[in-house]
Amino acid sequence: MPGVEDCQFDGEVRSLNLPGAGDIKERILFHDGATRTIKYSCFESPGALKSHHASMTVLEDDEGSRLIWEARIEPLELETFVKESMKGSIIQLEKVLAGN
Hints:
The protein is α+β, with helices and mostly antiparallel strands and 100 residues long. It has a single domain (6-98), classed as Alpha-D-Glucose-1,6-Bisphosphate, Chain A, domain 4 (2-Layer Sandwich). 20% of the residues lie in helices and 51% in strands. The chain is built from one helix and six strands; from the N terminus they run ββββββα. It has one helix at residues 79-98; strands spanning 6-9, 13-18, 22-32, 37-44, 51-61, 64-74. A six-stranded antiparallel sheet has the order 1-2-3-4-5-6, with helices on one face. The longest helix has 20 residues, at 79-98. The two termini are 15 Å apart.
């Protein structure tokens, strides 16, 4: 995720530090290597986030692979912020996978 200064994972909780935004904690709810799926929920963050559940699945595609990333958040007013963060994360992931 762009801007992440530090990330720790204890096997259940992923703790992220975003300078200027604060600390975020996400609980990994489900992980399956066979289906390449992860589900997680943000349970601690600065600001007005009340609920956040997301899933990511990587599917095989004729051109390589395709990422399906979905999120349900409350309040809905945070949708634009979360969507932009997800877009930034996808761009960063593409760079990492391309070796840049």
